[in-house]
Amino acid sequence: MPSNPAKSLFEPFRSATLSLDNRIVMAPMTRGFSPGGVPGENVAAYYKRRAENGVGLIVTEGTLINHPAAGASTKWPHFYGANALEGWSGVVRAVHEAGGKIMPQLWHIGLTRKAGTGTNPDAPSVGPSGLNLAGEQMGEPLSEAEIADLIAAYAQAAADAKRLGFDGIELHGAHGYLIDQFFWGVTNVRTDKYGGDLVKRTRFAVEVVEACRRAVGPGFPIMMRFSQWKDNAYDAKLAATPDELSLFLQPLVDAGVDVFHCSTRRFWEPAFADGADLNLAGWTKKLTGLPTITVGSVGLDLEFTRLFKEKKGAGTTGIDGLLERLDRGEFDLVAIGRALLNDPEWAKKIKEGRQDELLPFSPESTQTLY
Ligand SMILES: Cc1cc2nc3c(=O)[nH]c(=O)nc-3n(C[C@H](O)[C@H](O)[C@H](O)COP(=O)(O)O)c2cc1C
Please, which pLDDT band fits residue 275 given cuts at 50, 70 and 90? Predict the structure, then answer.
């Protein structure tokens, strides 16, 4: 086999809590193939196929915590209830049989949920201040008792993940969903301890992380995904400068996050207009000293949001720019979304230098679970 220029992607990864065979992470991608919230054998086979073909860590699609208004579809997997957890147990078994590692992405969509959708259509949608991403009043602010129940639901999911044999958890704190609605000033105008300045707006996430940590004990990886952008505002910024980013991240670090998954649409974009080339994962690693995952259009020439807004696919591109950054140690791990949704063999092809066999991303691939 010719010497492999992508070899840094295939170096093992070791941190205080996490050991992986290589640097390739499957990004969480909602698929909607779990009727009644129960992931079946087809879901297990889908993830197993990626593990067999060299993905170092799989982060599952967003899976709903035990709250009546967590989700907007009856086909998104639950992470509660005997049947769904039994289904996830089968997923873990299948991935481990193939030598892979897997973490569930724990999800509550907050006030992005349209009224009348999901498993409990009558349940009102909830968010920190009752405001949707456009800042429109959709309902009452969450009470402190309701917030306590939500935190307990995350912690129960974390405990269940550990019990089922998962290799850690990822908390979905990105893209304008519940945790991010607490982070963002547009959706969080609370005047109690869960609201205020950027640091105070981390309070909910901090309590979620602390409760999860209590539930799983030390040594079990807790990852946090966050993003500057929101589903309706790509130019939104939680942190306008590296100093603000540091203020935002520190309480999460102190609470017990092990790895940050820094969600961007294009990994090569500098996080700040301060002249530094570092992307969000680069800055996050530099500021916290913790391992980070980068993501966004790796190997593809159009960003993923074009799929949802315009039903567009994407062509393949080289990954030299990514490798240069990985070699420099800007970030530790690289999440791959659509390229892996489309092609379970993506990692293997890169490893074997079969770049010419990489497939363009086709929107049709979202309709099948292969
Ligand atoms: C079909 C689809 C579903 C997605 N669902 C989720 C999700 O459940 N949770 C999440 O954090 N991100 C989700 N994303 C975003 C991806 O994790 C990833 O960040 C994004 O696709 C960018 O990576 P890519 O350019 O390699 O595709 C989804 C993306 C796609 C294409």
Answer: confident
296 lines ligand 1 (CB under 6 A): yes
How far is the C-alpha of 60 from the C-alpha of 57, rounded, in Å? 10
- To which H or E segment does residue 64 belong? strand 57-64
Q: Give residue limits of the domains in the chain.
A: 7-362
Cα(28) to centroid(ligand 1), Å: 6
Q: Amino acid identity, residue 159?
A: A
Confidence class of residue 269 from pLDDT cuts 50, 70 and 90? Answer: very high
Report the nearest-CA residue for atom 11 of ligand 1.
Answer: 28
The DSSP output letter for 5 is T
**CA–CA distance, 204 with 181 (Å, rounded to integer):** 10
Euclidean distance between the first and final Cα of the chain, in Å? 28
27-61 as b/e, with b when 16 or more CB fall inside 10 Å?
A: bbbbbebbeebbbbeebbebbbbbbbbbbbbbbbb
Q: In this structure, what token pair is assigned to residue 177?
A: 């969903």
Find out whether the beta carbon of 48 lies less than 6 Å from any atom of ligand 1: no
Ligand 1: does its nearest atom lie under 6 Å from the Cβ of 297?
yes
Structure confidence by residue, pLDDT tens digits, 115-126: 999 999 999 999
Architecture (CATH level 2) of domain 7-362: Alpha-Beta Barrel (3.20)
The number of beta carbons lying within 10 Å of the beta carbon of residue 134 is 12
Residues shown for the chain: 370
Kind and range of the H or E element at 307? helix 305-310
Global pTM value: 0.98
Give, using CA atoms, the residue closest to atom 14 of ligand 1.
Answer: 29
- DSSP characters for 118-173? SS-TTSPP--SSSB-TT--B-SPPPPHHHHHHHHHHHHHHHHHHHHHT-S-EEEEE
Q: Distance between CA atoms of 249 and 257, rounded to whole angstroms?
A: 10
Asked whether the beta carbons of 282 and 330 are under 8 A apart, the reply is: yes
Beta bridge partners of 314: 361
For ligand 1, is residue 173 a contact (CB within 6 Å)?
A: no
